[in-house]
Amino acid sequence: MSAQALTASMEKLLKLHKSLYELAVKKTEIVKQGDIESLNKFIQQEQVHITAIEKVEKERQAAVLRLLPQMENPTVTDCLSVLKGEEHHRLHELSDQLMETVFELKERNFLNQQMIYHSLQFVNFSMNLINPQPESYTYGPPTDKQNHSKITQGIFNSKA
């Protein structure tokens, strides 16, 4: 029974991660377009997926503990050594697919992160072109208050 629960939770995790990957692909297009409102909506949808993944991950951990109660922190790989036949094959297949999907998701998220970073750099550059920060190229008194107070109290301010 716990092997079936583990397989079911792995199937749910795989489905959720694939759906999250599809969102990440769509997010790439939205970042390219620069549509901030749609980007916010996708981020909210990602948060819903992440919450669901966390819930299913707890279910998976509970199923693994039921399957291998003697181990302290059993993994899916540990379960594979216990299972035989079709259950072993199915769990191994799901595990491989999930690892591949997570890897692809990680790569896509890195791409999105880089694109957003470069977009922000471009926005900052554009803002600096429109509103440049004034720089003083002429001689003037120092703006540091500590240095200013030291300069005004020189030997010429002393009483004779």
UniProtKB/TrEMBL annotation:
<feature type="compositionally biased region" description="Polar residues">
    <location>
        <begin position="149"/>
        <end position="160"/>
    </location>
</feature>
<dbReference type="InterPro" id="IPR036679">
    <property type="entry name" value="FlgN-like_sf"/>
</dbReference>
<keyword id="KW-1005">Bacterial flagellum biogenesis</keyword>
<protein>
    <submittedName>
        <fullName>FlgN family protein</fullName>
    </submittedName>
</protein>
<dbReference type="InterPro" id="IPR007809">
    <property type="entry name" value="FlgN-like"/>
</dbReference>
<feature type="region of interest" description="Disordered">
    <location>
        <begin position="136"/>
        <end position="160"/>
    </location>
</feature>
<dbReference type="GO" id="GO:0044780">
    <property type="term" value="P:bacterial-type flagellum assembly"/>
</dbReference>
<dbReference type="Pfam" id="PF05130">
    <property type="entry name" value="FlgN"/>
</dbReference>
